Q: What sequence folds into this?
């Protein structure tokens, strides 16, 4: 039931798509501010070389054509952020590469770096094999351009620098792509963690609501029912037997007082400061005062050296002692109760025994003991109940690392295939 809140597993984050899958499956294309700046820098570098060189310089008409195409290249390359459809992005990238090739050719190779921004954008769009083929195509065009305008003498020097620039651009863009994908996945993981944190909070709220329902059912509901019976009896006997009516009213008043005290005890138990200012032995010893005041002799025994425990373990031990002593006071009709708290190197043991009437055929788990069992399971502990003669409750909790969900194969989150469950659904499934 409530222990399933600790069992809920975070659904695995979907891994990134394999290398063979399209990198932009309908997502937006983003050249980025850095890409646009690099595009402008390449165009300016080409202009400087083209207008200052005297070696195989382009004609005036070719220079004007290069300027016009470069302006179009700059505007065209800066307008990529509004593209979303896959087919449009592919056509846009191909057109950009063709435009860069035309600029490199009309500039007689002096604007030969123009294809590099288009090649960088291609890394974001195409699979790696197509990027490699595109880089080879640009290198082949560079070889043809160099041989046509400069001859074979300068081919190796020009093309080797261009190929090195291609390798650098592809590698750097791949690295940036991986880093951007990692940031996207991290943001998605953070969103999922926030969702599951909200779900855990909802589960804790439902768990506490169910516990309060059990408390009200076992304490206040019982007292109100008996008081109603006594008042009804008093009303019936008021004209027939005033003595019996007075006795019924007296019982109703006594039960009202007891119910009020029980509500006060429950309110004290709900306070978060119950374990903040006291050690566990002191808190359990204080619980025995109510039982002692009711006429039951209580013997509290502490073995071993007390030490600080984790908050969930201390709270589980405290709530177990509280529920056990409440049951002794309400149901056991006992004269003596023995409480033993033992600190061992690897565990802590709590034992509570009484000499009351027991539970006949065996321990019966009411709402209170069911809640204790759930709380104990959450901290990896073991609860044992024995009855007749009297009643004995023994709790052992390991103080080392524990698993909050020892039977992982039955966890409701696993049975749900990783999808989000409502808190009520999780609490209904047993783990």
A:
């Amino acid at each position: 039931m409530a222990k399933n809140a600790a069992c809920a597993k975070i659904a695995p984050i979907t891994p990134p798509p394999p290398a063979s899958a399209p990198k932009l499956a309908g997502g937006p294309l983003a050249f980025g501010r850095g890409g646009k700046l690099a595009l402008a820098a390449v165009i300016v570098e080409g202009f400087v070389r083209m207008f200052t060189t005297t070696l195989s310089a382009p004609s005036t008409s070719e220079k004007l054509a290069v300027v016009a195409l470069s302006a179009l290249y700059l505007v065209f390359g800066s307008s990529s952020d509004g593209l979303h459809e896959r087919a449009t992005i592919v056509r846009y990238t191909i057109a950009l590469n063709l435009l860069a090739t035309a600029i490199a050719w009309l500039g007689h190779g002096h604007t030969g770096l123009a294809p590099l921004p288009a090649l960088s954008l291609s890394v974001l769009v195409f699979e790696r094999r197509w990027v490699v083929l595109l880089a080879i195509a640009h290198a082949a065009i560079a070889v043809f351009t160099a041989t046509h305008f400069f001859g074979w003498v300068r081919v190796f020097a020009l093309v080797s620098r261009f190929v090195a620039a291609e390798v650098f651009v592809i590698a750097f863009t791949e690295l940036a792509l991986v880093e951007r994908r990692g940031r996207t996945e991290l943001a998605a993981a953070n969103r999922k963690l926030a969702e599951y944190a909200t779900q855990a909070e909802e589960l804790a709220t439902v768990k506490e609501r169910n516990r309060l329902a059990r408390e009200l059912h076992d304490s206040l509901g019982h007292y109100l029912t008996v008081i109603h019976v006594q008042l009804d009896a008093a009303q019936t006997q008021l004209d027939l037997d005033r003595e019996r009516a007075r006795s019924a009213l007296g019982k109703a008043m006594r039960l009202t007082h007891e119910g009020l005290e029980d509500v006060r005890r429950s309110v004290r138990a709900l306070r978060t400061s119950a374990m903040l200012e006291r050690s566990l032995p002191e808190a359990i010893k204080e619980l025995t005062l109510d039982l002692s005041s009711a006429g039951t002799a209580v013997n509290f025994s502490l073995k071993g050296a007390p030490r600080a425990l984790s908050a969930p373990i201390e709270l589980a031990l405290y709530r177990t002692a509280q529920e056990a002593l409440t049951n002794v006071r309400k149901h056991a009709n006992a004269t003596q109760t023995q409480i033993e708290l033992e600190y061992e190197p690897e565990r802590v043991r709590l034992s509570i025994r009484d000499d009351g009437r027991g539970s006949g055929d065996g321990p019966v788990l009411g709402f209170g003991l069911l809640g204790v069992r759930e709380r104990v399971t959450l901290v990896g502990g073991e609860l044992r109940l024995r009855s007749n003669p009297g009643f004995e409750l023994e709790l052992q909790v390991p103080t080392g690392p524990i698993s909050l969900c020892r039977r992982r194969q039955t966890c409701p989150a696993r049975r749900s295939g990783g999808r989000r469950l409502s808190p009520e659904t999780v609490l209904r499934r047993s783990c």
